[in-house]
Amino acid sequence: MFRNRMPRYEILSAEAMATLDGGWRRILTEIGVEFMDERALELFRAAGQKVEDNTVFLDPEFVLAQVAKAPREFDVQARNPVNNVHIGGDAMAFAAVYGPPFVREGETRRDATMADFRNFSRLAQSFPVLDSAGGVICEPNDTPLDSRHLDMTLALLTETDKVFMGNVVSAVNARDVLAMCDIVFGSREAIEKTPATISLINCNSPLHWDDRMLESMFEYVAAGQPVILTPFLLMGAMSPVTVPAALVQQIAEALSGIALAQLIRPGAPVVFGSFLSNIDMQSGSPTFGTPESGIGLLCTGQIARRFGLPFRTGGGLTSSQVPDAQAGYEALMTMLPTFLAGANWVMHAAGWLEGGLVSGYEKFIVDTEILQMLEAEFTPLEIDEASLAFDAHQEVGHGGHFLGAAHTMERFRTCFYRPMLSSSENFERWTRGGGLDTAARAGSIYRTKLEEFSPPALDDGVRQELEEFVTRRRKELGD
């Protein structure tokens, strides 16, 4: 996994941070946060917090005391230990797109299928730059709703040997995911010692944690698995239109969820989540890759570090319907500040299209290229006598060229990043090769990767036990 050792880009002054601090405190004490789960309400009551109906009014000092119980950094184990990830500090882990019900493949936009889910899992496995296939890489609409989580988790555990994200649709689904982790990693004790999955728990912004998310949260946190407590903020719809107001709301929502996690299991690993963008004020449509979202992202990193928490944000986000220039520049507008902020867990790092409605095959490759290039760009320079190449100057002299210099010949294979997608051919050669644009080249790359794919090794006994569990649970669920 990638270690981002570059300096962090922080844009908030001490005065600005103090103003934001006063803002989230007012929200928690004067407006409160709704929790649609009686167990959560009872935990807050027992902790001395004011509860009216489903609204909890939180003492900021109590919240900060709870937040202080969360670890600053933690590990998540993968089926292949080589792919274990560290979350926090200078570590950055990248997961593929999450949640789209549709797929784009070339000119075709259609419902996602289980075959697509497996294909995207295989692509995520194929690129070392990705630390995780994620969770709901796409929604397989050709499988039964009540049991598709079983097939999805089975694919993530067999087509990949990387860290994966647990299903959060219901407590039942979460328990099934945990049972499958027990099979793969040997026992519940083993996954409580070192977590084996990480899950996204979204706040239904503004200021509302719904019952289904909380049910899943209780299951995962009780089992010691990390959760990403994420406000879902589209400024103008789920939050006020100003970035500072959205940041204050984000802090209040995230910290309230983190406080609950610590009440469920003190010391539970958590991630300060952020999904912050804005809507088009003419159409009301969500927009991504905007300057405002980039600013919010940079601020979020600074805020999370102040609370001593690992954080999630960023990704290759775009509103574009196809993998075109807009898709590329909007993805970079989000991914560059992701690196500048030093996000620890990055969802939607590959494949996001059309505001998150579509998982795109070609876009997956475009995003992977962007991610690989940024990792190269954010690797600190090694400056020593050899890299200064004084001997090359002595060899070439005045007015010569360095193409054949010994220094060049020793390093030409590795001296520069070699793109897998970009074309630098002259016009004539590019034309003879078919004049393929970026999307067409990306299509060729993903198809080749899928043709060449070989699933990672898995013990036959473990595979059989997983398949038997899925078959049995599918029948029990009525599918």
Question: Quick one: how many beta strands?
Answer: 21
**Based on CA inertia axes, which overall geometry fits?**
globular
Count of helical regions = 18
* CATH fold node name of the domain at 2-9 and 67-377: TIM Barrel
What is the correct CATH architecture of the domain at 2-9 and 67-377? Alpha-Beta Barrel
Largest sheet: 8 strands, mixed
* The level-1 CATH class of the domain at 2-9 and 67-377: Alpha Beta
Low-pLDDT stretches are none
What separation lies between the terminal Cα atoms? 38 Å
SSE class: alpha/beta
Radius of gyration: 24 Å
DSSP strand content: 15-25%
CATH homologous superfamily caption of the domain at 2-9 and 67-377: Trimethylamine methyltransferase-like
Task: Give the overall pLDDT as a whole number.
Answer: 97
Proportion of helical residues? 40-55%
Using brief descriptors, characterize the structure shown:
479 residues; alpha/beta; eight-stranded mixed β-sheet; four-stranded mixed β-sheet; 18 helices; 46% helix; 15% strand
Write a brief structural summary.
The chain contains 18 helices and 21 strands. The protein is of the alpha/beta class.
How does this model look, in words?
With 479 residues, this protein is of the alpha/beta class. It has a domain at 2-9 and 67-377: TIM Barrel (Alpha-Beta Barrel), CATH 3.20.20. 46% of the residues lie in helices and 15% in strands. It is built from 18 helices and 21 strands. The chain has helices at residues 14-31, 38-46, 60-67, 114-126, 148-158, 171-185, 188-193, 211-222, 243-264, 291-306, 325-341, 361-377, 385-388, 390-396, 406-411, 427-432, 438-452, 460-476; strands at 2-3, 33-35, 50-52, 55-57, 74-76, 85-87, 91-94, 102-105, 108-111, 132-134, 163-165, 197-203, 208-209, 227-235, 270-273, 275-279, 286-287, 311-312, 345-346, 352-353, 358-360. Strands 10, 11, 12, 14, 15, 16, 17 and 18 form an eight-stranded mixed beta sheet that branches. A hairpin with an 8-residue loop joins strand 5 (74-76) and strand 6 (85-87). Helix 3 (60-67) crosses helix 9, helix 5 packs parallel to helix 6 and helix 9 packs across helix 10. The protein is globular and about 80 Å long.
